[in-house]
Amino acid sequence: MKNKSILTILSFACILSLWGCATPKYAMRTENTAVPDRFTEIPQDTTTVANLNWRTYFADNNLTALIDTALRNNQELNIMLQEIEISNNEAYARSGAYLPFLNVGIGGGADKTARFTRAGAVEDQLNVAPNTTFPTILPDLTIGATISWEIDVWGKLKNAEKSAISRYLASIEGKNFMVTHLVSEIAEAYYELMALDNMLDNIEKNVDIQQNALRVVKQQKDNAKVSQLAVNRFEAQLLNTQNRQYAIKQKIVETENKINFLTGRFPKPIPRSSATFLTLKLDSLQSGVPSQLLRNRPDIRRAEYALAASKLDVEVAKANFYPTLGIRAGVGFQAFNPAFLFNPESLLYNLAGDLIAPLINRNGLEAALNSATSQQIQSAYAYEQSILNGYVDVLNQLAKLDNFSKSYDMKNKEVDILVQSVTIAGNLFNSAKADYAEVLLTQREALEARMDIVEIKAKQLSAKVNVYRALGGGWK
Questions:
Q1: Which of 14, 27, 117, 262 has a C-alpha 20 to 30 A away from that of 337?
Q2: In angstroms, rounded to a whole number, what is the distance separating the alpha carbons of residues 268 and 206?
């Protein structure tokens, strides 16, 4: 009868354990990694500028020196490196979770048992050795080791370690993503600085032209060929042109300081070769095929590792419904007298094992599993979004490069015509075949065209920088 009762209790416990181990239904999302076969209608091979080192892509010694300095000194990048170190330590900590935990210790204490108690009476009657009784105040000396080990039957601890490793790898890709943006940000600022220098040079050249024109008009006014109105108009335009230089000079200061900030140093002059700005050539930029973005763009790779980590987190949350098998053991020596401490009779040891399954707190486990699956679905969408964003980014930059290259060629022709027109208008005015309004208008149009072509060239070079970034270049 007693054995039957024990069997009934064990059977009931097994049924409850199996019920507790049942995993609720959950849904996960399979990510879509499909991308178009090519970026443009023109077929491309797998050659891509993303595989070029930034020193090769930006063949300007001044620019590469700035990038090199930024990669060493930029504070935000160095902060990110410490984030990687933190992620690495977390992964390392996880790696020890499924190994046995061994503790070694030494302890000591003392107690006195009341004499008129069962324990006191026993001690009073018990001899430790012939003619040796227990002391009234009993010391307690212990030395030993304990071990505990959760056996990773369901792979929960191993999956948690893999999840931490995936997040560590994602943090590395985050650093690479920051590097690509840092490289492109410095390159864009550098080209913008060169453009501003050329704008300032255009203004200074135009000031010289307008000063000469003003002298001629004043001479003609002295000879009664024109009125004071003409002199005033020429002088007003000269002042307007001279005034424009201050906004550009302020922008130069701000752009130089931006570059210095990115390179992690206090403001100092930025060396550059601005005289060659308008003659900078853009080689044919190979974009490769869209599928290469999954390998080259750090933001896509980061999202991929984050997705892998979220899938493992679901497995960890699911494993929480299964029984955990633990083993605990201890061995050591315990005695009240150091002379007896390492006596074989002072040896103590214990060994225990347990199999624990969740039974009551299923709501908390189900909530954790639902959160993990929601984060997995969220990560899958984020991964798909990063792929789509990368593809659209490349399309935009390729179109920008093509359109501004065409715009530059057309604007260049306009500048040539207007420069000739300034000379023609001046000659006609001097020979009284054109009025001063035509001269002023032609000078203003020529200046604006020169400023426009510098801006277009800057946008063209910006597209060159951003095509490289969009394709995933700059971090290798």
A1: 117
A2: 29
pLDDT band at 13; cut points 50, 70, 90 = very low
Tell me if 476 is assigned to some domain. Answer: no
Both 208 and 233 in a single domain? yes
List the CATH number of the domain containing 341.
2.20.200.10
Q: What is the pLDDT of residues 90-134, one digit of tens each?
A: 877 777 666 777 788 787 777 777 777 777 777 666 666 666 666
Amino acid 56: pLDDT: 92
List the structure tokens of 400: 């920008």
pLDDT at 216 over 60: yes
d(CA 341, CA 242): 97
Which residues, in sequence order, are bridge partners of residue 48? 287
Question: DSSP E strands: which ranges in 245-369?
Answer: 324-335, 347-356
Instruction: State how far the Cα of 410 lies from the Cα of 229, in Å rounded to an integer.
Output: 36
Report how far apart the first and last C-alpha atoms of the chain are (Å, whole number).
Answer: 76
- Please check whether residue 438 lies inside any domain of the structure: yes
**The domain containing residue 123 runs over which residues?**
100-151+323-356
313 domain-assigned: yes
In three-state secondary structure terms, 118 is helix
Residue 462: name the closest of 248, 62, 190, 200 by CA. 190
- Tell me the C-alpha distance between 175 and 475, whole Å: 9
Task: Tell me how far the alpha carbon of residue 202 is from its chain's centroid.
Answer: 40
> Which amino acid appears at position 384 of this protein?
E
Same domain, 303 and 394: yes
For 392-405, the pLDDT digits (tens) are 999 999 999 999 99
Check residue 467 and give its pLDDT: 94
Domain co-membership, 391 together with 418: yes
If you compute the radius of gyration of the chain from its CA atoms, what whole number of angstroms results? 40
CATH of the domain at 208: 1.20.1600.10
398, 278: one domain: yes
